[in-house]
Amino acid sequence: MLRYPFVERVGIRELRNQVAAMVRRAAAGERVVITVDGVPTAQLGPLEPRGGPTLDDLAAVGLVTPPPRRGRAAAVPTAGAVPVDVRVDRLLDDLRGR
Description:
YefM-like fold; 4 helices
């Protein structure tokens, strides 16, 4: 699983138990991603952002789907969900508005 060593993930229960410590860490410049059922949903961090968006940032706003976590079954697409008669170049042209 792709993880960033500088961004810690904390479950909502752990956040409730350690909220003061997490806020102090954020005040010191550290970012903490809050998860609900393993899905990044919020972030706690310094008031001034540093650097560009991370994979966790994009997942939190719904722009990407994070990879499945270990121990959980990955969603397998059904046979009907993937069209077989579509050319990738035409699909890309359609998405790009050409």
